[in-house]
């Protein structure tokens, strides 16, 4: 079973040379720490940063340089800062090659719920709805089950939706899955995890074809 860093490390393998990538709040912010050093990638944060680097070491933080989740970050040479209007112009104009988001629930058809739990106070949906409406390549980073052990990969989302039929791939602490017209297709297993364990943890339709390899991280 993977921890949050393991999920981020696996997703980092999906990042290609020359990509512009938006990192959502939570696990996705860790992806910048694991991207290969031999490729050139521009990380974009919706609060107005292009050219984010890894998280700073303790004692080297700059409180004025933060991501959309209010975490202190580093910037790479050539990084730029701009207002939210320009940032969302990049997003809505489809200039982002890959969007990596966290989620509370994902449905087997690619619906995503990641902004609100009814009855709990939230500041708003932030940029999530713009991201899922505009992005053509969305990968979700999430735990496979909630704290009660219930599946977060469902037949149908129970929480208010952020986007409809938009998720392409999911990386959890148990597996890598692709969203297909027929349901969640199991591509890889986390080290030490069996197909049977993944089946038990998945409420939505799960497609298993042939021998499923372990993740390479």
Secondary structure: elements and pairs:
Layout: H1 4-12, E1 20-23, E2 42-45, E3 49-52, E4 75-81, H2 84-92, E5 98-102, E6 105-107, E7 112-113, H3 128-134, E8 138-141, E9 153-154, E10 169-171, E11 175-180, E12 183-189, H4 195-200, E13 206-207
Parallel strand pairs: 1-2, 1-5, 5-8, 6-9, 8-10, 12-13
Antiparallel strand pairs: 2-3, 3-4, 6-7, 10-11, 11-12
Q: Which features characterize this protein?
A:
single chain; 217 residues; alpha/beta; Glutaconate Coenzyme A-transferase; 10-stranded mixed sheet; 3-stranded mixed sheet; 4 helices; 24% strand; CoA_trans_fam_I
Shape: globular
CATH topology: Glutaconate Coenzyme A-transferase
Report strand %.
15-25%
CATH class: Alpha Beta
Level of helix content? 10-25%
CATH-assigned homologous superfamily: Glutaconate Coenzyme A-transferase
Helices, by number, come to 4
Question: What's the number of extended β-strand segments?
Answer: 13
At CATH's second level, what is the architecture?
Answer: 3-Layer(aba) Sandwich
User: Whole-number radius of gyration?
Assistant: 17 Å
Number of domains: 1
Termini Cα gap: 12 Å
* Widest sheet: strand ordering: 4-3-2-1-5-8-10-11-12-13
**Unreliable residue runs:** none
The helix/strand order is HEEEEHEEEHEEEEEHE
Q: How can the largest sheet be summarized? A: 10 strands, mixed
* SS class: alpha/beta
Average residue pLDDT: 94
In short:
With 217 residues, the protein is of the alpha/beta class.
């Amino acid at each position: 079973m993977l921890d949050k860093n393991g999920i981020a490390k696996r997703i980092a393998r999906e990042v290609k040379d020359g990509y512009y990538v938006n990192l959502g709040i939570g696990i996705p912010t860790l992806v910048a720490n694991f991207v290969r050093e031999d490729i050139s990638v521009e990380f974009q944060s919706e609060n107005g940063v292009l050219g984010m680097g890894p998280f700073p070491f303790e004692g080297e933080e700059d409180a004025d340089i933060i991501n959309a989740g209010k975490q202190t970050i580093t910037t790479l040479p050539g990084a730029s800062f701009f207002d939210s209007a320009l940032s969302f112009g990049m997003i809505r104009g489809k200039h982002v090659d890959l969007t990596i988001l966290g989620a509370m629930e994902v449905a087997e058809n690619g619906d995503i719920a990641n902004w609100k739990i009814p009855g709990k106070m939230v500041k708003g949906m932030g940029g999530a709805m713009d991201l899922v409406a505009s992005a053509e390549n969305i990968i979700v980073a999430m735990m496979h089950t909630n704290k009660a052990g219930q599946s977060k990969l469902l037949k149908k989302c129970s929480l208010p939706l952020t986007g409809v039929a938009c998720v392409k791939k999911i990386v959890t602490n148990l597996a890598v899955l692709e969203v297909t017209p027929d349901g969640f297709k199991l591509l890889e297993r986390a080290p030490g995890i069996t197909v049977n364990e993944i089946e038990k943890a998945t409420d939505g339709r799960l497609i298993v074809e042939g021998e499923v390899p372990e993740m390479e991280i």
